[in-house]
Inverse folding.
């Protein structure tokens, strides 16, 4: 299913997010389809203060933490990594920004967020090195949806999502990296305690400074991308990547940076976990 393409515009993290004005039209159109298919009430998908929270299955599972930072010795690197992944996965809401690089030069940047009660269960924006903007969503009642300035004819519901679609259009895009790190990291060690400063986020998160424990090691994961010639999301296997992870004193991950042997790298800043 496609709708009209949103107008092209310059969007950067410095300017802050501009919610596409077509999103309301899209949601209402999807609501109409839902009425035909299942008899849902269109009123449940209208935007505003009365917006109901997304269904439970559209949100990361929230459960009481089984381990607390105060109970752990930061020198126990593997347990602290598990705690960081746990804190992110159990956070009711999160906001993350990231950059991609090749041999040290920026190759793209973006952000992602999850907020209960929003009209979108998950939002993911990415701008390629050539300036192509890609918008990915997990919409309650509709599923994975995306559009891009090149390679796609308009806003499209991904009716048969690939593995790349499922990861890049859902909260797993944010959660998966730390889960992969816990599952595959080797040679993990505590480097020391450092202060890091996160710049202002695009959704109103203020610049903040955190005292953190810095960990290093190697791991493997999947890096996301977009192929504008075909309009397809992509996943590339990353192996033997050197990483640095900064975890604050409450066990919250604050920054993850890695570089693969071929020079590809990414840095993720975790602005808000609440």
């Amino acid at each position: 299913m496609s709708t009209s393409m949103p107008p092209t515009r310059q969007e950067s993290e410095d300017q802050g997010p501009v919610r596409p004005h077509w999103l309301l039209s899209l949601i209402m159109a999807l609501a109409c389809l839902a009425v035909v298919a299942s008899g849902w009430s269109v009123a449940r998908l209208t935007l505003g203060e009365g917006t109901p929270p997304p269904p439970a299955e559209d949100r990361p599972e929230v459960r009481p933490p089984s381990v607390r930072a105060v109970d752990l010795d930061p020198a126990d690197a593997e347990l602290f990594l598990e705690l960081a992944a746990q804190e992110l996965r159990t956070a009711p809401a999160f906001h993350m920004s990231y950059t991609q690089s090749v041999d040290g030069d920026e190759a793209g940047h973006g952000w992602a967020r999850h907020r209960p009660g929003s009209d979108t269960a998950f939002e993911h924006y990415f701008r390629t090195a050539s300036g192509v903007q890609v918008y990915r969503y997990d919409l309650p009642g509709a599923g994975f949806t995306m559009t891009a300035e090149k390679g796609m004819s308009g806003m499209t519901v991904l009716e048969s999502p690939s593995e790349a679609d499922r990861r890049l259009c859902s909260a797993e895009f944010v959660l998966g990296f730390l889960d992969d790190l816990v599952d595959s990291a080797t040679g993990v060690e505590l480097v020391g305690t450092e202060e890091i400063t996160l710049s202002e986020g695009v959704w109103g998160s203020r610049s903040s400074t955190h005292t953190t424990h810095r960990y290093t090691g190697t791991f493997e994961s999947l890096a996301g991308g977009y192929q504008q010639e075909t309009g397809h999301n992509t996943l590339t296997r990353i192996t033997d990547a050197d990483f640095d992870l900064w975890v604050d004193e409450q066990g919250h991950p604050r920054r993850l940076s890695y570089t693969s042997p071929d020079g590809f790298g990414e840095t993720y800043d975790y602005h808000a976990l609440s």
Notes: Confidence is low (pLDDT under 50) at residues 2-16, 31-65. The first helix runs from residue 22 to 38.
